[in-house]
């Protein structure tokens, strides 16, 4: 039986960032992802300067293969279906760069760098409380239960301080069958 302190559903930037903050606090974390990683995403993502700083501080330098082309943007236009402009941002100052990443590669890199155990092709099915125990049930590729996570008798209440990471959580101790 493998023990975890935290179960996170979803390996996107939010799930991976939470996992990174918690593993940095020496908690054992598992990320449950319904797709096989790297999961297919057709879109790119735009990283504002504050996001770039957060990623660099907590994950390190983004690998070149995660960037789409062009790597940086100077402004943005959003078009209506008829071709008219719905929204246009003014050009950015020369010293401000918004970076463009391919979400499939970027999300996978964040998940791998989070320090969490990753269970891919695994879906959250249900959770229930039995005799004071929280049970989280998962399915793998639709072929039955991949794991059952149980809340331990004495859950740990854990607050991540705001000046350390940009989130706070209540964490329960879990174990996987």
Describe the protein:
By secondary structure, this protein is α+β, with helices and mostly antiparallel strands. The chain is built from three helices and 13 strands. Helix 1 runs parallel beside helix 3 (about 105-115). The termini are close together. Residues about 150-175 have low confidence and may be disordered.
Please specify the SSE layout and strand pairing.
Blueprint: E1 2-4, E2 6-9, H1 13-24, E3 29-32, E4 44-47, H2 49-59, E5 67-73, E6 77-79, E7 85-88, E8 98-102, H3 103-113, E9 117-119, E10 122-130, E11 133-140, E12 145-151, E13 174-176
Parallel strand pairs: 2-3, 3-9
Antiparallel strand pairs: 1-13, 4-8, 5-8, 6-7, 10-11, 11-12, 12-13
Helix pairs in contact: 1-3
The share of residues in extended strands comes to 35-45%
Second CATH tier, the architecture: 3-Layer(bba) Sandwich
CATH superfamily: FAD/NAD(P)-binding domain
Arrangement of strands in the largest sheet: 1-13-12-11-10
- Helicity level: 10-25%
Number of separate structural domains: 1
**Major sheet: size, sense and barrel closure?**
5 strands, antiparallel
In sequence order, what are the helices and strands, one letter per element?
Answer: EEHEEHEEEEHEEEEE
The total count of helices amounts to: 3
Which fold name corresponds to the CATH topology? Answer: FAD/NAD(P)-binding domain
Q: Cα distance, first to last residue?
A: 5 Å
CATH class category: Alpha Beta
Low-pLDDT segments: 151-177
Strand count: 13
What would you call the structural class? alpha+beta
User: What is the CA-based Rg, rounded?
Assistant: 19 Å
